[in-house]
Amino acid sequence: MIARLLSILVVSLSLVVPSAAGGDLNSGMRAHIKDIAMLQSGRDNQLVGYGLVIGLNGSGDSLRNAPFTEQSIRAMLENLGVATEGGRARARNVAAVIVTATLPPFVETGTRIDVSVASMGDSTSLQGGVLVMTPLKAANGDIYAVAQGPVSVSGFNAQGAAQTITQGVPTTGRVPNGAIVERKIPDSFGNLDTLVLQLRNPDFSTAVSVADTINAYAKRRYGRNVASEKDARTVQVKKPSGVSPARFWAELEGLVVETDTPARVVIDERSGTIVMGENVKIARVAVSHGALTVRINEMPRAVQPEAFSFGETVIEPSTDIQVDQDDANMAIIEGPNLNELVDGLNRLGVKPDGIISILQGIKTAGALQADLVVQ
Questions:
Q1: What is the spatial distance between Cα 375 and Cα 37, in angstroms, rounded to a whole number?
Q2: What is the C-alpha separation between 38 and 254, in angstroms, rounded?
Q3: 273 in the same domain as 198
Q4: Where does the UniProt annotation place the signal sequence (predicted)?
Q5: How many C-beta atoms surround the C-beta of residue 367 within 10 A?
Q6: Cα(86)–Cα(23) distance, integer angstroms
Q7: Lowest mean pLDDT among 55-59, 248-252, 285-289
Q8: Are residues 58 and 163 in the same domain?
């Protein structure tokens, strides 16, 4: 029985069931409505464009591998009135890039927004480059902004004859306040009779809490209920007469509500990052974790023939195999709260990748009372 217990990673021993007098399992937090919800009519819009970054110090696209860069150079020069017939461009200081930006709601023409720039050719770095005037289009094909300016790059690339050092991503960058909004997105916010709120983190309990909080305020302020929950993400609020939508939303966004979030554990196996929410609970389990390491070293030896013999030198194989097994520690883990859960995992003395395996095993055993998200 003991051997069978040690052969598996996790065995569920007992399940902790809170009593009815113990209160709510998921203790929520208090937050403003504007921090947990946003207006449906106040959504962002994405913009994209194709442009050129010039002024690079020999780190631009090679025109043989990126012919579209040469075509773009010729088109740009022709638009500027420069004849380009005959000859072939040999410049290595130009890179073709994709420019992206997010157009915030309620912006007027002339507003400046940030843009992101990413190389689409074989350029090695955008350091020191300047983005040439680039129209930015929305999904409908209309131009809403124009971007231009020096590119700010956080990464760098240093290359020598025998070594190359790269830090960060030198082929992407930003142009702070590099785009000017040329067209305003039409909106009817000023004529709305119903405000639609969308929760950033969908949850039925939070949606009901938002609706109840708004109704409690509206009952005192306007004498009637105005909000109703539609689903886990959406809350509809009817605007009272005699007040503008902007002023009405300004009154509501500062209200404090009791939020509730589902218990969730997020695991990033690539970086070994583990993020656990406050509401994560774990039943009492026994965990055994040990590591088996096998090292195989090949050490071939040359065997020489005896003197004055007609033998030949041969290679004799020689293999050294070492097997190391760390002590497998068994610990009892029980997590009625986040601190005790983390302390119990740390008592095992394992690294983050080991904790990831343990959490996955505990979830399989049915003892992890949370949603396990693996990225």
A1: 25
A2: 12
A3: no
A4: 1-23
A5: 24
A6: 82
A7: 285-289
A8: yes
